[in-house]
């Protein structure tokens, strides 16, 4: 699949407009989601008990920023939806960057970890290597990248949202090309057969 700049802008703008329009119902539908398995998988590789600089990439209305803040870390959110940025700032009082994934402007070596929960799959495959390299550059050496994405073998529009779904092997190849090593993965929801687990979570270390 190959897209020009106009098509890439459309992918971002249509997807983000969908989230902007549905920001209130999205918050009501997701604020009580149990994300504890993902928090634990993301935080376990950090051996020391120190306050971490965390980028919540595609933070939405701020549920996970609030959690990381509540246990003593220093989370910063990032989202392209202005409605979500406003919600997340009001809910957490943390810094929330209003940036689009395809035109990031991130500080270098500024974060111990990037938490990308249900967000990175919105990036078209042709742009994913570049964005992963930018996240790698924003992480300190040994930093952790957590990704949870729907799994599959397709790319394109799903209603008004664009998505790129991969299985483990392809996800791992993208991560390794960008300078990460995969250290853990699992499928969700927990405790049910594989064919009923639509989510793939990966934990990688920047090398
Ligand atoms: C499924 S939501 C997940 C939100 C949050 N991480 C959570 O777990 O509830 C996807 C998020 O990615 C953001 N997003 C999608 N495409 C984006 C883009 N091109 N640039 C920036 N943010 C984007 C949306 O605004 C939304 O907050």
Explain the overall architecture:
The protein has helices spanning 5-21, 23-30, 36-43, 63-70, 82-92, 128-138, 168-177, and strands at 53-57, 74-79, 96-98, 111-117, 139-150, 154-158, 161-165, 180-188, 199-206. α5 (82-92) links the parallel β2 and β3 (96-98). With 207 residues, the chain is of the alpha/beta class. It has seven helices and nine strands. The protein is globular, with a radius of gyration of 16 Å. The strands form two sheets. The protein has a seven-stranded mixed sheet, with helices on both faces. A two-stranded antiparallel sheet has the order 6-7. The protein has a single domain, classed as Rossmann fold, CATH 3.40.50.150. Residues 12, 15-16, 19, 30, 58-60, 63, 79-81, 84, 100-102, 117-119, 122 line the site of S-adenosylmethionine.
What are the defining features of this structure?
globular; alpha/beta; two-stranded antiparallel ribbon; binds S-adenosylmethionine; Rossmann fold
Q: Please state the overall shape, judged from the principal axes of the Cα atoms.
A: globular
- The chain-level structural class is alpha/beta
- The CATH homologous superfamily is called Vaccinia Virus protein VP39
Low-confidence runs? none
Q: Report how far apart the termini are.
A: 29 Å
CATH fold descriptor? Rossmann fold
């Amino acid at each position: 699949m190959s897209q020009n700049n106009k098509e890439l802008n459309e992918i971002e703008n249509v997807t983000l407009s969908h989230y902007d329009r549905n920001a209130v119902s999205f918050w009501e539908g997701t604020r009580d989601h149990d994300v504890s398995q993902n928090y634990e998988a993301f935080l376990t590789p950090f051996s020391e008990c120190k306050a971490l600089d965390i980028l919540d990439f595609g933070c939405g209305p701020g549920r996970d920023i609030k959690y990381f803040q509540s246990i003593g870390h220093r989370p910063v959110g990032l989202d392209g939806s202005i409605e979500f940025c406003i919600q997340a700032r009001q809910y957490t009082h943390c810094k929330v960057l209003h940036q689009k994934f395809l035109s990031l402007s991130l500080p270098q070596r500024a974060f111990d970890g990037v938490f990308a929960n249900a967000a990175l799959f919105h990036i078209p495959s042709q742009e994913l290597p570049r964005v992963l390299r930018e996240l790698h550059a924003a992480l300190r050496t040994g930093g952790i990248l957590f990704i949870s994405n729907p799994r599959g073998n397709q790319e394109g529009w799903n209603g008004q949202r664009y998505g790129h779904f991969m299985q483990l092997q392809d996800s791992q190849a993208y991560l390794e090309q960008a300078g990460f090593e995969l250290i853990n993965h699992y499928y969700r929801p927990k405790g049910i057969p594989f064919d009923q687990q639509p989510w793939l979570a990966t934990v990688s270390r920047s090398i």
